[in-house]
Amino acid sequence: MMKKWWESIDESIIAEIINKVNLARYKDHTVEKCRSLFEALNLTWNEYYYYRRSNNMLTGFELDKRIDSDAFIQLLQGLNYKQQRYLSMSNELNKLVYLTPRIMDNSILRSLEYDPNNITDDIRLKAEEKHTDFIKYFNKLKRDRFISEEESIYLKKFIKSFAKLLYLVRSNIAHGEKTPKGPDRNKAARDENVSGVVSLLLFFIIDFIFDNPSKSIATYDTLIPGQNNEEIFSKVTGIWTDGFIEGLSYYDGSGLPAFRWELNSKLVPVKIFQSNQQLEEYEELDKLKGPDYTRIWIPAKLVNGSKIITHIYETRY
Fold first, then answer.
1. Fewer CB within 10 Å: N-end or C-end of the chain?
2. Are 241 and 302 in contact (CB under 8 A)?
3. pLDDT score for 295
4. Could you give phi then psi for residue 273, rounded to 5 degrees?
């Protein structure tokens, strides 16, 4: 089996990326959720850059100068054709296309010394350019939806405009409301509105990069075939594989199997269910497990030596 590029990332950095994703999933505030996902992606695009550099895959521009936003563009363009198409046709992306008001570049607003209480049409149009370009390439791509991978001329340009817009969102939410003409009291509402849409897209992207953790789960208890709750996955197409995770395996106060993820701990044998479809059973499992367990992403190793990222239920106490 061909090794995936991210398998070369140091385990401690993989753990940091996953921790940021796990934190984001349980944050109620959408801007904080979005910020945590961008932090995970920041670590990821840095590692993708180092991977490509070590394999002589950098673009000529990157060889001349390393820029964060370009590293992010390369990360998204590194997604395969099917993943890029899925993103371009998703309902979540459609929401970003038709988001109102359009996303403005805060750095442009500040450079034009805007009045936060009265943003003129001229300034607004200049600040919205990245969102406008994104919509332009989306509309071109929409006319090109059924063209083959080899013939599609707009997908790469669309993904580039998409990455630029997402990077703009990252930059916007990293800064506060201060301006030379007083606080922009509407910025928080704009950031909240944008983050609610963008965070869903970021989850998709991270899931794609790490080969769909959303389609698998590692288990050490009654979900295993032959156990009490095996029927939950009986109607789902997929396979069970033996694997290992790092952490603490024990029995809780009720005598039930429990687990805590802990890096550099002992290897715990698990059964890993892998499907080719999104697992809608998670909601049912969340109810079954109850408040004493949290569903998280975790790195795992299959018996054939390959690495995956999957779900597991971690004991809270």
1. N
2. yes
3. 92
4. -95, 125
Angle between helices 68-77 and 155-173 (to 10 degrees): 140
Helix (H/G/I), strand (E/B), else coil: 217: strand
What value does the mean pLDDT take over residues 213-238?
82
How confident is residue 316, by pLDDT bands cut at 50, 70 and 90? Answer: confident
Looking at every residue in the chain, the average pLDDT score rounds to 91
Burial code (b: 16+ CB inside 10 Å, e: under 16) for 96-133 equals beebeebbbbbebbbeeebebeebeeebeebbbebbeb
Q: Which two tokens stand for residue 91?
A: 């309902």
Query: With helix as H, strand as E and coil as C, how does 35-49 read?
Result: HHHHHHHHHHHHHHH
- Classify residue 36 as left (phi > 0), alpha (psi -120 to 50) or beta: alpha
- Angle formed by the axes of helices 30-54 and 11-25, to 10°? 160
φ and ψ at residue 235, rounded to 5 degrees: -100, 10
Q: What is the DSSP letter of 120?
A: -
> Which of 1-5, 23-27, 124-128, 138-142 shows the lowest mean pLDDT across its residues?
1-5
Number of helical (H) and strand (E) elements in the chain, helices listed first: 12, 6
What backbone phi and psi angles, to 5 degrees, belong to 29? -80, 120
Query: From CA 272, how far away is CA 105, in angstroms rounded?
Result: 44
Angle between helices 81-89 and 155-173 (to 10 degrees): 60
Kindly write down the DSSP assignment for every residue of 84-105, as one continuous string: HHHHHH-HHHHHHHT-SSPP--
Q: Which of 32-46, 63-77, 227-241 has the lowest mean pLDDT?
A: 227-241
